[in-house]
């Protein structure tokens, strides 16, 4: 998230929290696609991580992008930490370890998403190359230890860094050493949200498997295909993971609100400062627990919006749905991830088919799948088959949905070609992670350094 919200309207009742989510309901013609992708900056000389400061650091990179794009700077205590397009159509932000993120504009087609991603990477290269910086498209930092990883000067990250070790064993690795590709999608009603939430929660482990791309840690193979997926198994289980109540046939906005109310907060912003609120839940905040701690110590709509942005389930509900299961990867994956989910969720025939396919998948089965995928990826056993076979069926449904959408580019091609990189994974039976490990043990000569050539933007 590029910029935390400052909406000072007071919250008068619990109903307003539910209404806030329901305001995301949009008619089909207003549905959009918002793609986010992160990548690791590194110095070409030595494949070293890039710090925030200095003439060739992250700050210089952001300032160069600001001059090129004309976007507004986002400041934290006077330091530039991101950029936002003046009309809100897209933003650039920093993850805790310097991971560079584009939060794309809400667009109508995957063609536009792909053009946007390509334009961003071209602009980034123009600024970064004179600084000796390139970017790595992986799901996990392959070489640098946590102690070697830079820390970005964002106030919310200071609060999270202190809090994470209290609630899990891998939260700092999640913050500082992982990258993802996400897509944000709309819904038309509470019923439509429920259907999309349930289908996408059940299929999120499949996305993790298909996009598995983080097999290295500290300069050597880690024995996993998605280290990033493994990290999420013990980051902060109060606010992340697979949500059992979402599997209920009558799940709705109010159920998500009830869950979110009992998750500890991270912060509130008052007078431009971040205040640590990790010692209380939002429900306690609503009851007045912060009256004596911060100025205007009662909750606002902005506080609620920020709290929702600090929850990390596999599919996150805000006023849209965020698909959160995929590792970061090469540029083709930036187009493939939104294509996969748009095909499944934005066409009624495809959504019906995906819902039918997953209708009797239980929470326990999906959880077992989620737990196995970081190591086994598409070889994960599910009932009497593997996820590789499940992927064939799901990709066929996604392809049908994209065909039905009939969104053509200027050459007359629809959006189905963006699934080709996932078709290759299924056809080969091997993930990107497996292919990297094979390369490491053969032509890379047990060296991690070639990954910075072959998987760089």
TrEMBL record:
Q: Which BP terms in the Gene Ontology apply to this protein?
A: glutathione biosynthetic process
According to the lineage, what is the superkingdom?
Bacteria
Q: What is this protein called?
A: Glutamate--cysteine ligase
Which molecular function terms from Gene Ontology are attached? ATP binding; glutamate-cysteine ligase activity
The source organism is: Pseudaminobacter soli
Pfam short name (any one): GCS2
This protein's pathway reads:
Sulfur metabolism; glutathione biosynthesis; glutathione from L-cysteine and L-glutamate: step 1/2
Q: Which UniProt keywords apply?
A: ATP-binding, Disulfide bond, Glutathione biosynthesis, Ligase, Nucleotide-binding, Transit peptide
Q: Which PANTHER family match?
A: GLUTAMATE--CYSTEINE LIGASE, CHLOROPLASTIC
Q: What class of enzyme is it?
A: ligase
InterPro entries given for it? GCL_bact_plant, GCS2, Gln_synth/guanido_kin_cat_dom, Glut_cys_lig_pln_type
Which reaction is the catalytic activity of this chain? L-cysteine + L-glutamate + ATP = gamma-L-glutamyl-L-cysteine + ADP + phosphate + H(+)
Looking at the keywords, is Nucleotide-binding present? yes
What quaternary structure, including any partners, is listed in this protein's UniProt entry?
Homodimer or monomer when oxidized or reduced, respectively.
**What family name appears in the similarity comment?**
Belongs to the carboxylate-amine ligase family. Glutamate--cysteine ligase type 2 subfamily.
**Its EC number(s):** 6.3.2.2
Function summary: Catalyzes the synthesis of gamma-glutamylcysteine (gamma-GC).
């Amino acid at each position: 998230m590029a910029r935390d919200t400052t909406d000072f309207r007071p919250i008068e009742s619990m109903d307003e929290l539910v209404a806030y989510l329901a305001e995301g309901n949009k008619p089909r013609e207003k549905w959009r696609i918002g793609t986010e992708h992160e990548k690791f900056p590194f110095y070409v000389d030595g494949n070293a991580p890039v710090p925030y400061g200095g003439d060739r650091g992250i700050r210089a990179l952001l300032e160069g992008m600001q001059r090129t794009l004309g976007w507004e700077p986002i400041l934290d205590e006077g330091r530039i930490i991101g950029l936002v397009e003046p009309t809100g159509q897209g933003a650039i932000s920093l993850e805790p370890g310097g991971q560079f993120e584009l939060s794309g504009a809400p667009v109508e087609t995957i063609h536009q998403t792909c053009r946007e991603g390509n334009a961003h990477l071209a602009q980034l290269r123009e600024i970064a190359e004179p600084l000796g910086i390139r970017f790595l498209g992986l799901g996990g930092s392959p070489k640098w230890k946590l102690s070697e990883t830079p820390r970005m000067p964002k106030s919310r990250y200071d609060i999270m860094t202190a809090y994470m070790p209290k609630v899990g064993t891998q939260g700092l690795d999640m913050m500082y050493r992982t990258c993802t590709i996400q897509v944000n999608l709309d819904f038309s009603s509470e019923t439509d949200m429920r259907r999309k939430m349930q289908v996408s929660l059940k299929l999120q482990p499949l996305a993790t498997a298909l996009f598995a791309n983080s097999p290295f840690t500290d300069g050597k193979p880690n024995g996993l295909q998605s280290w990033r997926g493994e990290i999420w198994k013990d980051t902060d289980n109060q606010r992340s993971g697979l949500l059992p109540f979402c599997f209920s046939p009558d799940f709705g906005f109010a159920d998500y609100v009830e869950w979110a109310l009992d998750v500890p907060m991270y912060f509130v912003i008052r007078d431009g400062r971040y205040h640590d609120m990790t010692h209380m839940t939002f429900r306690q905040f609503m009851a007045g627990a912060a009256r004596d701690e911060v100025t205007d110590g009662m909750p606002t709509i902005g506080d609620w919006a920020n709290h929702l942005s600090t929850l990390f389930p596999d599919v996150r509900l805000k006023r849209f749905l965020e698909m959160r299961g995929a590792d970061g990867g090469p540029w083709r994956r930036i187009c493939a991830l939104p294509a996969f989910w748009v095909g499944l969720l934005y066409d009624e025939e495809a959504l019906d088919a995906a819902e039918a396919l997953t209708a009797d998948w239980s929470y326990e089965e999906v959880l077992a799948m989620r737990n196995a995928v970081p190591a086994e990826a598409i070889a994960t056993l599910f009932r009497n088959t593997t996820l590789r076979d499940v992927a064939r069926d799901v990709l066929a449904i996604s392809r049908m949905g994209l065909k039905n959408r009939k969104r053509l580019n200027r050459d007359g091609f629809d959006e189905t070609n963006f699934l080709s990189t996932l078709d290759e994974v299924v056809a080969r039976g091997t993930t990107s992670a497996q292919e990297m490990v094979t390369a490491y043990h053969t032509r890379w000569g047990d060296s991690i350094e070639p990954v910075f050539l072959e998987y760089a933007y």
